[in-house]
Amino acid sequence: MTADRSRSFASHRFAWPTVLAAMLLASPCAPAVAGDPVAWRLDPVHTRVMFAVSHAGFSNAIGTISGSEGTLLFDPEDLSSARLEVSVPLDRLDLGDDAWNRAALGSRLLDAVDHPRAEFRSSTVQPHDDSSATLCGELTLRGISAPLCLEVKVNDVRRHPMPPFRRTAGFSAAGVLSRSDHGVDGWGSMIGDEVELRIEAEAVRSRGAAAAFEPDASEPGAPEPGAPEADVPTAEQPTDVESGMRSDEPTPPEATPDP
Asked: The Lipid/polyisoprenoid-binding YceI-like domain covers which part of the protein (predicted)?
């Protein structure tokens, strides 16, 4: 009888891990299955688009755009499952000169009054290794969409060392676009057609961000793709775009010629 009790105790002892695992999987608080893409939201304070374009062949004009917002589905163990939607506020463009900023945002170039944001939505991801991939999708600029591919590097995925210690992912990306593909063809003799892009971005875990990829995300009450949550820093939104830029039609500012 003692032997029977010992065998019974042993069988229950080895059964408990199986029972416990089943309970955890059934629990609504159970962790996500490994390999499932997780929702992230871009941090607009630490996301920056940099661009370079030829200035009449003399040099490359360098500009930046801050304040981008967007959502990301991303599994660090499976880059091919990543999906991205980004909205870039063109009124945050900075070429280092007020006159050039107004010209770039005017109707002959970006036409930011009628098209205040550039939008990117990914379609495919081709991983190269565990930390790099080619991300392709569609960029809409000045109301015209065209394909765009970016070479993306995953810099790190871990908890941020500063409070509130959010899980953060950091990325660097580079690509090239043709501005004429988007109808941005003004001053072709002075401004190059090829625009080089470099992007530095950070994203934080966000439970609500996944709603942007749901079929009904555009319905009333659903989160908008780029709408920031309270736990994500939000860049200030200045209103630099001048209401008269369409009628002013500024010409590219140039230095005063030497006498």
From this structure: 39-204
- CATH number for the domain that contains residue 121: 2.40.128.110
Instruction: List per-residue pLDDT tens for the chain, 259 residues long.
Output: 445 544 443 444 444 344 333 333 333 333 444 457 899 999 999 999 999 999 999 999 999 999 999 999 999 999 999 999 999 999 999 999 999 999 999 999 999 999 999 999 999 999 999 999 999 999 999 999 999 999 999 999 999 999 999 999 999 999 999 999 999 999 999 999 999 999 999 999 987 666 666 654 444 444 444 444 444 554 443 333 333 333 444 555 554 333 3
Query: What residue numbers bound the domain in which 81 lies?
Result: 33-215
Peptide linkage before 164 cis (omega within 30 of 0) = yes
Going by their DSSP bridges, the two strands 83-89 and 93-94 should be labelled as: unpaired
The reply to whether 225 falls in a domain is no
- pTM metric for this prediction: 0.71
* Domain-embedded: residue 258: no
